[in-house]
Design brief:
The chain has 26 helices and 28 strands. The protein is an alpha/beta fold. Strand 19 and strand 20 form a beta hairpin. Helix 4 packs parallel to helix 21, helix 9 packs antiparallel against helix 12 and helix 18 crosses helix 20. Bound molecules: ligand MGD (2 copies), iron/sulfur cluster and molybdenum atom. The site of one ligand MGD has 30 residues, from helix 7, helix 14 and strand 23.
Length: 741
């Protein structure tokens, strides 16, 4: 069964798809607009939970439930171009857009070679978009400079899994939430960011109070920690020391599974030595918690038949992100808490298809099928599969997104192509990013919505069909793959991202390589190259998924429906050279930019339940804006007094790189010395508060993931604001008028 490239309304009931927001990947049923639309009202599709989706069983959160209201508002409908970014945009034809793009690719290749071209994509791509983008940039153009916003999101989890297990691939599944008896939530505000998983946990907690213990590690009290039996409000950036301290107590209390350590791991002696040094007393001082709390956690861990650890950005977005991921995995390996129901180290992915991106090779050192650009054998396999000359793929890692910014500072890029991400809100050190990008001769943006902050620095904007308007596949956090059909027509001339990449490929002379009739054909070509890899999807196709519903991988050809693997590494053998998992010993270092006398506070930046990242979709839904109409700076009462702040007053938040203003919320819920801002309100919002102007560029040396969770800041009270001062977008004259063009 194949799926047409042009959307058709579903004839057999509602369209079924994976929610296009978070990595939980709930199933949605989408019902067409009713009579109101026929009468000239807004054509709003209604979303509700799909009871047939095995990952969510009919549950949805407020974002999924309102997605239908976001699909048609404020969309781009035609390509836009301007020669210089101080000019207004003018609409152009697709033909002219491709001429411009092709000319700039050829010019850059001639002047700078393939490394002068870079693309920055997104975990909000569908797998087909990812695959064709990688084939174009890494294959046809010979530049490995394809990176994605997943670099900011889960690259530490990827490097952590690879280092410990020998391969990427989260080993757990959502059913483990029903079977664990201790759940450790570390660096994750699951209640707001993975709400349906959290509700599943809560429901169980209500029914079986004693059988499930929830432990939360977060410097703030959150909706997640409100449900916890134990909340460790550690100092930001001290997670690794806490984990080592827990290891120390496991050693003391007989929490080591000697047989498992012996048979399935290597490096225990070195780790045990490291752990021995992290006494409860030392950990308590380092992390700023009571010794008693560490003992409680250790008691719980040792007594639990099944411990499940869940983590996200509080762990990954750190200069020691990869080390901390290893710190979590170490504990599971040493205590044998892995590879069986209810137990394991489970990274929650943020975006709806961050997992698919990993499968399709969507980071600067990856190739499709969990392969590496630095591996000659892997390159040769892809060159053959893609019908390219031997040596077509470059042998060195490409530029990560921050390296792309640095390359623009050196005038080393001739083309920066951004797609399905809004880096002028989400990258750190925004003023530096803005200055770097201004040097690039051509910035191209694939975007679905009008007026984003990144459009304001672009030359060519290509209107993209989004989820609901293009057929494609996404993989959620538990390795479950869902087919998302096209059930609405794209607005105006908008086109699917993969189709835009394929068209450019054909124009550059790669007729054969990019001759796709549909995304189903793209997917078929992709899954064939995953055969025999850990992420084997070769038994899947659009037709199979449509017919049999979502499936978990590994799913080799011939697997029956439902026959995928719920868990990985169940045999105690790992895909390393020795077949053993590696225990990794790393000394805690703390924050990249620790607080000091001038900048005495640590700013951390995260999310609200109702908003999605840079608000291009969620800001258009009244119901989602109501709970948090504006960003709030959370400050502990002691810090508020020290800095002369009053509740609901305005404050300036100042780091070494810039300053923003925000309304103060004084609250005991954040630990002293730490302040919090949401990431959502970029320069285009009326209540703009560009938190990332404050953040630094230091990142994890292994995963290259920036430390987006911490920067040293100080606070200054500001007198009652005039209307004009309410927005800090005034620092960039002209931006707002550009955005409106
Ligand atoms: N509502 C909503 N949901 C989302 C998203 C969204 O934009 N909105 N985005 C999705 C995406 S892409 C992602 S990546 C996920 C992110 O999901 P989460 O990681 O859960 O979200 P954050 O709010 O970024 O950060 C989580 C917590 O880390 C804490 N934290 C800060 N520093 C530290 C530290 O040093 N140690 C520890 N242990 N904790 C620390 C913060 O206080 C915060 O509560 O959410 C996904 N879901
Ligand atoms: N300080 C700080 N910074 C952070 C974080 C943090 O916790 N703290 N979190 C980081 C993380 S984990 C993430 S994931 C990033 C997220 O940051 P971004 O990726 O910049 O945020 P989004 O708003 O999701 O951007 C996606 C863009 O793609 C557009 N879009 C939607 N669908 C499509 C489509 O199908 N095609 C195309 N072409 N465009 C589409 C949307 O309109 C939107 O503009 O932010 C990172 N930045
Ligand atoms: S929990 Fe995530 S995937 Fe599920 S409905 Fe909410 S935003 Fe969508
Ligand atoms: Mo993310």
């Amino acid at each position: 069964m194949s799926h047409p490239a042009t959307p058709v309304p579903p004839s057999d009931g509602p369209a079924r798809a994976q929610c296009p927001y978070c990595g939980v990947g709930c199933g949605l049923e989408m019902k067409p607009p009713g009579a109101a639309a026929a009468g000239g009202g807004e054509a709003i599709w209604t979303a509700r939970g799909d009871r047939h989706h095995p990952s969510s069983l009919g549950q949805v959160c407020v974002k999924g439930a309102t997605v239908g209201e976001t699909l048609h508002r404020n969309r781009l409908t035609t390509p836009l171009y301007r020669q210089r970014t101080d000019q207004p945009f003018a609409p152009i034809s697709w033909d002219r857009a491709f001429d411009l793009l092709e000319a700039q690719v050829r010019r850059t290749l001639a002047e700078k070679g393939p490394s002068g071209i870079a693309m920055y994509g997104s975990g909000q791509f569908q797998t087909e978009d990812y695959y064709v983008a990688n084939k174009l940039i890494k294959g046809a153009l010979g530049s490995n400079n394809f990176d994605a916003n997943s670099r900011l999101c889960m690259s530490s989890a990827v490097s952590g899994y690879v280092r410990s297990f020998g391969s990427d691939g989260p080993p757990c599944c959502y059913d483990d939430l029903d079977q664990a008896d201790t759940v450790l939530l570390i660096g994750t505000n699951t209640a707001e960011c993975h709400p349906v998983l959290f509700q599943r946990l809560l429901k169980r907690k209500r029914r079986q109070k004693q059988d499930l213990q929830i432990v939360v590690v977060d410097p703030r009290a959150t909706a997640t920690s409100d449900a916890a039996d134990l909340h460790l409000a550690i100092r930001p950036g001290t997670d690794l020391a806490l984990l080592h301290g827990l290891g120390h107590l496991l050693l003391e209390r007989g929490g080591v599974d000697r047989a498992y350590v012996q048979a399935s791991t290597e490096g225990f002696d070195v780790l045990a030595q490291l752990w021995a040094a992290w006494t409860p007393e030392k950990v308590s001082r380092f992390c700023g918690i009571e010794e008693r709390q560490l003992h409680q956690l250790a008691d719980r861990w040792v007594a639990s038949p099944a411990v499940l650890s869940l983590w996200s950005m509080g762990v990954n977005q750190s200069v020691e992100g990869t080390a901390t991921v290893a710190g979590i995995i170490n504990l599971h390996l040493v205590s044998g808490q892995i590879g069986r129901p209810g137990a394991g180290p489970f990274s929650l992915t943020g975006q709806p298809n961050a997992m698919g991106g990993r499968e399709a090779g969507g980071l600067a050192r990856l190739l499709p099928g969990y392969r590496y650009v630095t591996d000659a054998g892997h390159r040769a396999e892809l060159e053959r599969h893609w019908g390219l000359d031997s040596g077509a793929i470059a042998p060195e890692s490409g530029l990560t997104v921050w390296e792309q910014i640095e390359a623009m500072e050196r005038d080393a890029l001739g083309l920066w192509w951004v797609a399905a991400t809004n880096p002028l809100v989400s990258l750190p050190w925004l003023d530096r990013v803005r200055a770097a990008v201004a040097r690039c001769p051509m910035v191209v943006l694939n975007e679905a919505y009008a007026g984003t902050e990144t459009a304001a620095i672009s030359h060519l904007v290509l209107p993209s069909a989004q989820w609901s308007e293009k057929a494609g596949v996404m993989t959620n956090s538990e390795r479950r793959v869902t087919h998302c059909p096209a059930f609405r027509a794209p607005p105006g001339e908008a086109r699917a991202d993969w189709a835009i990449f394929a068209e450019l490929g054909r124009r550059l002379g790669f007729e054969e390589q990019f001759r796709y009739g549909s995304s189903a054909e793209v997917f078929a070509e992709f899954v064939a190259i995953t055969s025999g890899r850990l992420c084997d999807l070769s038994g899947l196709s659009h037709g199979f998924l449509h017919e049999h519903g979502p499936q978990q991988w590994p799913f080799p050809a011939g697997t029956p429906p439902g026959g995928g693997a719920p868990r990985l590494h169940t045999s105690g053998r790992f895909p390393t050279a020795s077949g053993r998992a590696r225990l990794i010993s790393e000394q805690p270092m703390g924050l990249g930019e620790p607080p000091d006398d001038d900048y005495p506070l640590v700013l951390t930046v995260g999310r609200y339940l109702e908003q999605w990242h840079t608000m291009t979709r969620t800001a258009h839904v009244e119901r989602l804006l109501r709970p948090h109409a504006a960003p709030l700076l959370e400050v502990n009462p002691v810090d508020a007094r020290t800095h002369g702040l009053v509740d609901a007053g305005r404050a300036e938040v100042v780091s070494r790189r810039g300053a923003v203003t925000a309304t103060v919320q004084i609250t005991e819920r954040i630990r002293q010395g730490t302040v919090f801002l949401p990431m959502h309100w970029g320069a285009s919002q009326e209540q703009a508060c560009e938190a990332n102007r404050l953040m630094h560029d230091l990142g994890c040396p292994i995963s290259q993931q920036p430390e987006l969770k911490a920067a040293a800041v100080t606070l200054k009270p500001i007198a009652a604001p005039s209307r004009a001062r309410l927005s800090n977008s005034g620092d960039h004259p002209g931006l707002r008028s550009d955005l409106k063009s």
